[in-house]
Amino acid sequence: MTTGINGAVWESLYRHGHRLQYPGEMLVRMAHRYLDPERHRRVLDYGFGTGENLVHLARRGFSVAGVEVSESALTVARQRLAGLVDPDALVLHEGGRLGFASETFDAVIAWQVLCYNDDEGLRRALVELHRVLRPGGRFLAALCAPGDSRQSTGEPLGGGVWRLTVPGQDGCLLRVLEREEIPRYFPDTGLEVGSFGHEMGETVSRHWIVTYEKH
Ligand SMILES: C[S@@+](CC[C@H](N)C(=O)[O-])C[C@H]1O[C@@H](n2cnc3c(N)ncnc32)[C@H](O)[C@@H]1O
After folding, report:
1. How many whole angstroms separate alpha carbon 36 and alpha carbon 27?
2. Atom of ligand 1 nearest to the CA of 10
3. DSSP string computed for 157-184
4. For residue 49, how far is its CA from the centre of ligand 1 (angstroms)?
5. What is the Cα–Cα distance from 164 to 152, expressed in whole angstroms?
């Protein structure tokens, strides 16, 4: 997993005060559409940042756990979620195997996280997330899509990988999947692919939404 350079960049960002103040709008909509607190009680948020999406999910009644590569983000998230989530349910993840038994979770969310990888890192992370998901459980992710400013201003390294030059994420590796590549990376059990994004000034934001139910 490419947590090395990417982990260092994100840790520096969070250490210097990077925060979101609200959950992702599309995550809120997609979680409402695909996840039910009764059927998907135990939810893993992979790469929760400073925890805004976790706050939303915990308030909706999900039993949440999460992993994050940045220790500074983990500290902020634990404070933000104090009284709402057991701090031990939020853990540092330095890459490789996740510290959970197979089939632990009813749902796994990876929102705008998995693309911060090289190709091998992306594949390995997907195998791990699939492993910890129970049969019948729901996978839900957002990944960077072609045309996003991070890609278009980045340095192409080949094989669908870019080195980012945007301020703050400078040096991060980004794996951007073309639409036709997506089915090769995910199980075909009810695979659904959507997209969202916006343009504001010079910023172009483009994301895939990928979801499936594990069989
Ligand atoms: C754009 S933020 C998204 C945070 C949160 N999921 C959200 O939607 O607000 C990306 C997060 O992915 C984490 N991250 C970056 N590279 C990673 C990697 N290779 N493996 C796991 N997590 C990574 C970062 O620490 C960061 O918190």
Report:
1. 14
2. 25
3. EETTEEE--STTSTT-EEE---GGGHHH
4. 6
5. 9
Sheet holding 173-175, edge to edge: 155-158, 161-163, 173-175
- Ligand 1 atom with the smallest distance to the CA of 121 is 19
Please write the tens of the pLDDT for every residue from 97-136. Answer: 999 999 999 999 999 999 999 999 999 999 999 999 999 9
Whole-number Å distance, alpha carbon 67 to ligand 1 midpoint, is 9
| CA-proximal residue: ligand 1, atom 12 (nearest) | 113
CATH assignment at residue 121: 3.40.50.150
Q: What is the pTM of this model?
A: 0.97
| Shortest-distance atom of ligand 1 to CA 69 | 25
- Residues having CB within 6 Å of any atom of ligand 1: 1-3, 6, 10, 20, 24, 47-49, 52-53, 68-70, 73, 111-113, 116-117, 121
Q: Is the pLDDT of residue 2 over 60?
A: no
Number of domain units in the chain: 1
**pLDDT at res. 95:** 86
94 pLDDT band, cuts 50/70/90, is confident
Give the range of the structural domain holding residue 108, as residue numbers without chain letter. 3-213
Q: Report whether 104 contacts 74 (CB < 8 A).
A: no
